[in-house]
Amino acid sequence: MRGSWAIAACAPLLAAVLAGEAQAGAWTQKRGDGILLTGYSTHWLVAPGGTQLRKSEVSFYAEYGLLDRVTLVGRLALQSLSETRAAPDDVSDSAFRSALIAIGGTEAGLRFKLLDAGPWAFSTQLSRTFESGGENRNNQRFGTGGGDVEVRLLAGRGFGRDSFFDVQIARRSLAERGGEEWRLDTAVGVPVSLRWRVMAETFSLSAGSRPGIPAYSGHRTQISAIYDAPAGFSISAGILGTLQTENSARETAALVRLWRRF
């Protein structure tokens, strides 16, 4: 499946708190081809203890075909973060508010095509996160994380005129104190007119307990509308919400993106 939904299938996304930004679809880029997604999003999160997080970020996600079967992927974001912490907790006996502007959600990796048979595509992806001063990891404080390694399996199928379905499962090994996260992401997209498309996505996350951190899980969904402009780029707008969560923040977000091939 190439064409318009080869762009749209660049989601599903970084899950949980980092959900809403493109991760990668099952389709690889051709050698020398690439895509850049520039996005702006605003997120409202409430942790189980009442702590509130407001995040606004400008993000950049890119894919580039090193070979027909190997695609380089990468992502980073400039984040504005504000936290109103409920009290008491393990940091302070009184409520407080903090804010910062930092780079966060930075990672890079390689996606390898396993099979491309007619409407079906299968691939695997290996990626690593990098330490930065912003939000890098679920259920962790600002500046925590970096060095996490993820292995992801991806499968996608095209249907009819530019419709598609994509499903991904991933295991992320957490650095420092160890542990792992399991992720399941899905996406389905359908055209509603010549230039308009809609896409529905789900993001599920589950992690076992480890020293100082209880087990946590979360399930989120996102709905987006995409307009394919005559000039050759696409614009999307979407909303994200939490379906269920355990020991992790409930999130609501609004997102806009500019999709451009190069």
Description:
- The structure is a single chain.
- The longest helix has 5 residues, at 4-8.
- It is built from one helix and twelve strands, in the order αββββββββββββ.
- With 262 residues, it is an all-beta fold.
- Strands 1-2-3-4-5-6-7-8-9-10-11-12 form a twelve-stranded antiparallel barrel.
- β1 (34-46) and β2 form a beta hairpin.
- The protein starts with a helix and ends with a strand.
Share of helical residues: under 10%
Mean of all residue-level pLDDT scores: 85
- Structural class from helices and strands? mainly beta
- Which quaternary structure do these chains form? single chain
Query: Could you tell me how far the N terminus lies from the C terminus, measured between alpha carbons in angstroms?
Result: 18 Å
H/E element order: HEEEEEEEEEEEE
Taking all Cα atoms into account, the compactness measure Rg is 18 Å
Overall shape: globular
What's the β-strand tally? Answer: 12
Q: Give start-end ranges of low-pLDDT stretches.
A: 1-9, 11-23
Walk across the major sheet and give the strand order.
Answer: 1-2-3-4-5-6-7-8-9-10-11-12
* Largest β-sheet summary: 12 strands, antiparallel, barrel
In percent, how much strand structure appears in the residues? over 45%
- Helices, by number, come to 1
Write the layout of secondary structure elements.
Blueprint: H1 4-8, E1 34-46, E2 52-67, E3 70-85, E4 96-117, E5 120-129, E6 149-159, E7 163-173, E8 180-191, E9 196-207, E10 216-228, E11 234-246, E12 250-261
Antiparallel strand pairs: 1-2, 1-12, 2-3, 3-4, 4-5, 5-6, 6-7, 7-8, 8-9, 9-10, 10-11, 11-12
